[in-house]
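G., the chain you wanted modeled:
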Amino acid sequence: MVTWGDSSSGGDSSAVEGQLAGVEQIYSNVNAFAALKSDGTVVTWGASDFGGNSSAVEGQLAGVEQIYSNGYAFAAVKSDGTVVTWGASSFGGDSSAVADQLTGMTKFVGWRDKPVNADEIIGRARYEMKMRGKTGIVVGLETI
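Predicted structure as tokens:
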């Protein structure tokens, strides 16, 4: 894999180069990258505050089937239906307060039978949570 660009925003993956074998999919946000490997593990790099450092949840990033991202955080859906998040706390990177509710998840769903538009889902969730005086992100996931 070859990366380029601003090194503080993930343009330099040399620190994780040895871990990037078997990558099936790469996800990004504005300053970080997450690579989903064929064995269900995840490798991250880029700006630490935006998910480039997933060491706080590294032990939970096994059995991952899908990764979603907004501008500043990542959410991984695991094969057991649980969700692991990391990145900027104020943008959904810390879901510890609702972790017990993030089970039985399978995939992102669209709004009103439209194709998935993650920015719309995230923006609407932020607006609704702000109106209720809460912070974080609600990922538009469908339960099993």
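DSSP finds one helix and eight strands in the chain.

Shout if anything looks off.
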